[in-house]
Amino acid sequence: MKTEVVDQLIKIVGRDGVLTTPEDLAAYSFDGTFAEGTPGAVVLPRSTDQVSQVVRAAAEAHVPIIPRGMGTGLAAGSVSIPGGSLVLCLTRMARILEIDEANATAHVEAGVVTSDLQAAVEERGLFYPPDPSSNRHSTIGGNIACNAGGPRCLKYGVTGDYVLGLTVVLADGRILKTGGKAIKDVTGLDLNALFTGSEGTLGVITEALLRLIPRPRFTQTAMAEFESLEAASESVSAILGAGIVPATLELMDQTAIRCVEEAFHLGLATDLEALLILETDGSDEGAVMREIKAIAGICREHAARSVRLAVSAADQTSLWEARRAVAPSLARRAPNKLGEDITVPRSAIPEIVRQLRGISQRHGLPIVIFGHAGDGNLHPNILFDRRQPEQRATMERMVGEIFAASLALGGTLSGEHGVGLLKRPYLEQALGPVSMDIQRRIKHALDPENLLNPGKLFA
Amino acid sequence: MKTEVVDQLIKIVGRDGVLTTPEDLAAYSFDGTFAEGTPGAVVLPRSTDQVSQVVRAAAEAHVPIIPRGMGTGLAAGSVSIPGGSLVLCLTRMARILEIDEANATAHVEAGVVTSDLQAAVEERGLFYPPDPSSNRHSTIGGNIACNAGGPRCLKYGVTGDYVLGLTVVLADGRILKTGGKAIKDVTGLDLNALFTGSEGTLGVITEALLRLIPRPRFTQTAMAEFESLEAASESVSAILGAGIVPATLELMDQTAIRCVEEAFHLGLATDLEALLILETDGSDEGAVMREIKAIAGICREHAARSVRLAVSAADQTSLWEARRAVAPSLARRAPNKLGEDITVPRSAIPEIVRQLRGISQRHGLPIVIFGHAGDGNLHPNILFDRRQPEQRATMERMVGEIFAASLALGGTLSGEHGVGLLKRPYLEQALGPVSMDIQRRIKHALDPENLLNPGKLFA
Fold first, then answer.
1. Entry pTM
2. Ordered structural domains, chain B, with CATH
3. Is the ipTM of this complex over 0.90?
4. Residues on chain B touching A442 (C-beta within 8 angstroms)
5. How many Cα atoms are found within 13 Å in the side-chain-facing hemisphere of B407?
6. In chain A, which residues have their Cβ closer than 8 Å to the Cβ of B194?
7. Which of B103, B127, B131, B187 would you mutate first to test chain A, the one with the most A CBs within 10 A?
8. Based on the number of CB atoms within 10 Å of its own CB, is B157 exposed (0-12), middle (13-18) or buried (19 or more)?
9. Which residues in chain B touch residue A52, judged by CB atoms under 8 angstroms apart?
10. Model confidence pLDDT, tens digit, residues A40-97
């Protein structure tokens, strides 16, 4: 990074807000994937106004900007591209500015950690549902930029469903404010939705006004064991067809079950083809209990070998242990994993799982499958060793086949992680040329110099 | 319209699909408002491909296109502007192409009438919640173009919350397909949301893939009478604060109550300041009943004079009669009404109602207030006689004051009707110059010649 630019950044945010040593730059060179890219400098502003000045200075110097929160992303969306880009990190903007109980809204800075917001609103009987599994580290700004999901989406929707308003610094440094506390608003284009999920390519989100809901007071959990994946999948359809919308409906396939059992000895039966972990919640204790019992009944009717209901909070935690253990258990199986995030129409789950198994068998690397079955959002994780070039090449071929299989079944590349750098080569295949052209036109209209997160998503 | 253009349209859609006589043009010259504008011609295509050819032909001839469904809009969004525009009416594209029960989706053409879709999916135990009060006439395409709402939005969200995918004919005639049956999708920008609510300015929506939910099996209805509007409003806050989300939560103010009683003699007490009509629904009969009883208790604690619970389906219909009678009763009071659609943060409802009364008293024209209190979405209707120029001028001044009051309280111009022609003069005041610039840039990127619904929303 040129000295003049660094000096100007220091003028804007202070000396402690600009990082340029190789050690500091290394710390900001990766996200939750294995992608890496060293930035030219890192800047840590403390206000929307400082972000505006930083973006203006970078734009004048033609320095690309990589907006970033805690770097927990799973698509390399916040990893620097070669050529001296400026990482604009929002973690010092971490204030909860207001929780408005009467209107059930929260106004936060982009760097607030998701679980900090959740804890703060839950103290007041309110609830912020989006729960990406990184929520103890990830920031609200990053969640919005990627339209993050999580297990609760089936019932409660994704991050974008809770965005009422945004403060965004545009490519030329201007500050855009969208939306407001009014729950319904059709005054003009839906700019909240345009910036949500735009992965930092259209503007830098600095503040958000979020919709909250009443905190569900009762929760019930069940775990159902299946000898056949089809039976598990049919149970999912039957539950939803019965008009029950569980708060979560998580699936683990046989490979996932075996990885967890090998690593943690939780007593899971390793001959099972699938586990479902289900939760019902709500404000009516009787209804929540009746729903979980109805779910248990439906699973049994669909050939579940057994269904366990949690009768205490400790039981609930223990049922969730298996699901939570999946990610850590994979690290014991192989040095690296690539976690994909395809989403298929719900009815295509058995078929996509069959095809994923086929891909694994043909190429000889394990694919662990788990995810949000109610949404059709699965995380096939390829286990491999990236020090072995042939395994890496195999993994990349497998990724291509996984995406092709998902798209052929009417699915998508990503349900909640985003496109970033990693899925960019597949984007046109997923969207088609007309959509790509429209997206690029919008990008060009908002960022004609392509300074905001270049190399991601579109270009 | 030039003969060459008309001839070309006839080649595309057939002679019976192009209307040019003064009588036919008159029938397509208005919507649900009192605005009028005679088009140069009307074209009624039968397929996305025909729409594409029509748009291409119009673009070549530089003829502006006004997309339109059944013309039930309440913002003059589908009314022609002077200068020989082409009304592109989608009512002949009225096929329900698929109802996919396994994935709970419906694929429809834009001209399907909303209540026809609702009836078709309800037969299969599914539910399409958005319910604009025009749903027996309005089309899905128009609902999406305006992001229509209705009484059920508080619990179920607006039209946009049910749009999974769209087929859109762009300004140059290309066909864009967005989204798909996968419920979660973060692959690229959210183009579904961009076109939803864009009022025909960015493209012509020809088909939609809609998300359905299980049909709620049980409904309970209550009506609460209040001597003070504040008490009604506090009841609303207390109900939501207790974690209850009613399916509908409708408010009628004193003027609305009196209009209805004068016109239909339903036995409403005309000294009341407010009526609330509330509905709970769901798949658990006990929970639905407990919720309505809890609501009744909360209303009584907040000084409701009386609360009536419907004990039969006939009772339910009778409680709703008062609310349904509002619109027809206004026609008996005055020859014309202008129905606005402001939305304020929920906590500002008492203050906005006070201010609306002040505006009415200062200017001497009645304002009837009713609407969706849980959302803060109110429909202040100004009653006037447009044949009297001074009343019309007064009405226009009142509209300006109503919008100013809403914006000052953190509200918006429109919760569910849209901007169209009528609210266009107030748009910049609501959104500010930066948002206006961004919206215009997007418009220009997608429709550089400003051929799609010119004069509406932005320009």
1. 0.97
2. 3-89 (3.30.43.10), 96-214 (3.30.465.10), 218-328 (3.30.70.2190), 334-418 (3.30.70.2740)
3. yes
4. 189, 194, 442, 445-446
5. 15
6. 189-190, 193-194, 442
7. B187
8. middle
9. none
10. 999 999 999 999 999 999 999 999 999 999 999 999 999 998 888 999 999 999 999 9
